[in-house]
Amino acid sequence: MNAFCSQCGEALPPDAAFCPNCRQAIPAAAPESEPHGIVIGLMWLLTFGYFIFFSAKSAGMASLCGVSSFGMGIYLVTRPNGTDKANGWIRLGIGIVMGLIYFAQATQRV
Ligand SMILES: [Zn+2]
Fold this sequence. Notes:
The chain is an all-alpha fold and 110 residues long. The chain has 3 helices and no strands.
């Protein structure tokens, strides 16, 4: 953050309050954004729904829940907030594991 002065383009030391070249005041780093609590909650709800529909052999609803929650996971890992990222990565990890299980089952069926 604030790698270069917005006024003169001088490289800035980390946490500098003023530019060492032109004395331009450096705005404090923006506080980390709030976690996307609603998105995280909805993502896990849809993930839960995915497993419910999957065990009920409702393939259409399962894939709908799976794809939408996986998409939310991708969205969350791109957020700057650490909580968002962590939840997103866990969701993507589950998605990859489920994908490998499908793949293993599909190859066994041949
Ligand atoms: Zn400067």
